[in-house]
Design a protein that fits this description.
The chain is about 15% helix and about 40% strand. By secondary structure, it is mainly beta. The strands form four sheets. The chain has an eleven-stranded mixed β-sheet, with helices on one face. The longest helix is centred in the C-terminal third of the chain and has 18 residues, at about 280-295. It is globular. The protein starts with a strand and ends in a 17-residue tail after the last helix.
Amino acid sequence: MKAVWLLAAMAGMAQGADSTFLLEARDLAPYTRTYLGNGLIGQSSSQLGTRAAECFMANVYDHAPGDVERLALLPEWNEVDVWNGRVWLNSASPGPQSIRSYRQTLNMYDGTLRTQYEWVDGDRAMTIAVETFVSRRDSALGVVQVQITPHFAGAVKVRLPLRAPPPPKRYLMDKLEKLEGEAARNQWAIWYPGYMAPRQSSAQLQGNGGLLQMLAEAEGKKTLVAEAVEVDWPDGLDSKQAVRQQSNDASGVELSFSARAGRPYVFHKYAAMVSGLNASEVSEKAAMKARESRARGYAVLVQEHAAAWHELWETDIQVEGDPQLQTVIHSMIFYLLGSASKDSQFSIPPMGLST
């Protein structure tokens, strides 16, 4: 019989994560999304790590006329797109010929998601490494680091956007008695997230970075969410090589530069998300937090975040002699903790912070 026990204040936890804290994908398909959570923010994964992914905030729901309340999809902050002189990475069709040595690792001990691969397009190859986390130390903060290493010399572009997703196709779920049309063929059609309507956006550039901002309002409610994203790029690239992009439902920066073969280029996005009812108040709070986070830097933030997760793992459930079951148990605990926080009074939604 396997011995199972609850360890409070686990002694002697090995430095770093053992294999039962790691979930890994080494194939592009089939792909099942995971998500990172800190009790306030839930951030879904994307296949390449660079594509826009769903983000939710606890207690931020919409309620459109005729529909049921839905956990609302926040403006997408995590996307980073790369142009290799021919095609944009996020627009390309990923396959074994173009995406090689693929590996995406969810480190449940540190609370980070790392995606790395080789992007090959004819004679243009580029190594991509992405690390994402939503801070366990500061629940309003999400961070992504993208490192690109071109294996060719030539023109490269990088986009750092903040954009609102389009509104969903609605079903009158509070009156609907029978599924029809697309919903009858595919019942997943009714499982769409709620909508945050963009109210204003802006982009500012300075030196080797900038500030992207967006204010959105939950449809059918008065709840506002302000997102502020501080972006930065490597020294040697400045605002003269950047183009500011701005519309009602998106803001962003596009950098153009001549890349050197073998040189790594690192980009960051520090996203602060604040909800409330007062537009100027939530916008100011989000902008201040984003600026402070960028000033502190990626290395400090990820270290504090991992340390906070390590404290949570001082209480664990351990199974003797069955590593596979141990991994399952760790994943159950990880996703539960990702939807709860001792600092929050919000209840956990039926499917966590991931829909």
